[in-house]
Amino acid sequence: MDILTRFTERFGERPDGVWAAPGRVNLIGEHTDYNEGFALPFAIDRQTRAAARTRADSIVRVASAAAGFAPVEFSLDEAQPGRIEGWAAYPLGVLLILKRLGHAVPGLDIMVESDVPVGAGLSSSAALCCSVALAVNDLAGLELTLEALVEITRQAENHVAGAPTGPLDQSASLLGVPDAAVLLDCRTLAARALPLGLDAAGLSVLVLDTRAEHAHHDGGYAARRDGCEQAARVLGIGALRDLGTEELTGRAQKVLDPGAYRLVRHVVTENARVLETVAMLDSGGPATIGPLLTASHASLRDDFQVSCAELDAAVEAALGAGALGARMTGGGFGGSAIALVSADAAPAVAEAVTARFAAEGFAVPAVFPVRASAGAHRVDV
Ligand code: ADP
Ligand code: MG
């Protein structure tokens, strides 16, 4: 059933419009965003669509086509951020943050559907928030810039949904450009589209969705984030972004305990890898960045310790079958890995990952190519 029919069946009238926002993969630069560092995500060709219609009152009704997410209704006058349970915290979070910032937010009926796998580390949560943010921005005539919407949707995830993410996911979803990655400086929030040229080089990025649980709320993510912030305080710097690779082995190693030092080493070397990836894309093209991706995975596995058996197996199997590079993508503890492959090798890599998972007794992984795609936009329907 298409989204217009779904909307009309549920709410009795046609929507005013439909807005789409993509999920993302992060090419490189993991757990750097909340350390004010660099990241290089791209928006993927899977998206969440929100059909919406304004109401004359302050009631908001949200419904999702996805199984397991029941419709929710609430009043904008009464809802409290931090008191909303379940999936509705994402769309309602966006509305409540806008309201808190003084914007006039109307009541709305919203129906969402998505082909971004939920909870797979491809940022279905940001896709959801960003599609709703764009809808209300247009419908209420707020005229907020995409950059402003990055901050609003990030706050919605942080303060209402309680997911302490950095601005990476929202930036990719809102600012994505076809066949380009978004180079993001998470200190200044400056974002620049960086052409990838994957097609021209005969390359493809495969998502290896492990189907293993990832749960940011579970504390693993928050613990790493706290650890980084504490280390920055001990080092007397504003954020780990401020530590250069040359300072790592000097002062940092002396004053930090070994656990904190490993966290810091990941962040500092990961920032350097992002900048090197940018330089390599420019000088050698996308076929040359594979080893940087693989090094990023090793650092996340060994130093930051956010990988898991499934992610490690996916990366190993992909590399064994000829991937140029592979790494976990997203926060970790499950979710998805990506592999950079020559388009010819994609079937063999997919097969190798699937076979390895079967041999290990893991769930059947989902392996599919993704293309760097446009960010959030209004859809003609
Ligand atoms: P990820 O962003 O990696 O997919 P998260 O745990 O951050 O994983 O976000 C997943 C949550 O976002 C879901 O549990 C649900 O609350 C919400 N969500 C995402 N997409 C949808 C959707 N299409 N319908 C309803 N809820 C969704
Ligand atoms: Mg998410």
UniProtKB/TrEMBL annotation:
<dbReference type="InterPro" id="IPR013750">
    <property type="entry name" value="GHMP_kinase_C_dom"/>
</dbReference>
<keyword id="KW-0963">Cytoplasm</keyword>
<dbReference type="GO" id="GO:0005829">
    <property type="term" value="C:cytosol"/>
</dbReference>
<dbReference type="InterPro" id="IPR019741">
    <property type="entry name" value="Galactokinase_CS"/>
</dbReference>
<keyword id="KW-0808">Transferase</keyword>
<keyword id="KW-0479">Metal-binding</keyword>
<keyword id="KW-0067">ATP-binding</keyword>
<dbReference type="InterPro" id="IPR006204">
    <property type="entry name" value="GHMP_kinase_N_dom"/>
</dbReference>
<dbReference type="InterPro" id="IPR020568">
    <property type="entry name" value="Ribosomal_Su5_D2-typ_SF"/>
</dbReference>
<feature type="domain" description="GHMP kinase N-terminal">
    <location>
        <begin position="93"/>
        <end position="176"/>
    </location>
</feature>
<keyword id="KW-0547">Nucleotide-binding</keyword>
<dbReference type="Pfam" id="PF00288">
    <property type="entry name" value="GHMP_kinases_N"/>
</dbReference>
<dbReference type="Pfam" id="PF10509">
    <property type="entry name" value="GalKase_gal_bdg"/>
</dbReference>
<comment type="similarity">
    <text>Belongs to the GHMP kinase family. GalK subfamily.</text>
</comment>
<keyword id="KW-0299">Galactose metabolism</keyword>
<dbReference type="GO" id="GO:0046872">
    <property type="term" value="F:metal ion binding"/>
</dbReference>
<dbReference type="InterPro" id="IPR006203">
    <property type="entry name" value="GHMP_knse_ATP-bd_CS"/>
</dbReference>
<keyword id="KW-0418">Kinase</keyword>
<dbReference type="InterPro" id="IPR036554">
    <property type="entry name" value="GHMP_kinase_C_sf"/>
</dbReference>
<feature type="domain" description="Galactokinase N-terminal">
    <location>
        <begin position="6"/>
        <end position="53"/>
    </location>
</feature>
<dbReference type="GO" id="GO:0006012">
    <property type="term" value="P:galactose metabolic process"/>
</dbReference>
<keyword id="KW-0119">Carbohydrate metabolism</keyword>
<dbReference type="GO" id="GO:0004335">
    <property type="term" value="F:galactokinase activity"/>
</dbReference>
<dbReference type="InterPro" id="IPR006206">
    <property type="entry name" value="Mevalonate/galactokinase"/>
</dbReference>
<feature type="domain" description="GHMP kinase C-terminal">
    <location>
        <begin position="284"/>
        <end position="358"/>
    </location>
</feature>
<keyword id="KW-0460">Magnesium</keyword>
<dbReference type="GO" id="GO:0005524">
    <property type="term" value="F:ATP binding"/>
</dbReference>
<protein>
    <recommendedName>
        <fullName>Galactokinase</fullName>
        <ecNumber>2.7.1.6</ecNumber>
    </recommendedName>
</protein>
<dbReference type="InterPro" id="IPR014721">
    <property type="entry name" value="Ribsml_uS5_D2-typ_fold_subgr"/>
</dbReference>
<dbReference type="InterPro" id="IPR000705">
    <property type="entry name" value="Galactokinase"/>
</dbReference>
<dbReference type="Pfam" id="PF08544">
    <property type="entry name" value="GHMP_kinases_C"/>
</dbReference>
<dbReference type="InterPro" id="IPR019539">
    <property type="entry name" value="GalKase_N"/>
</dbReference>
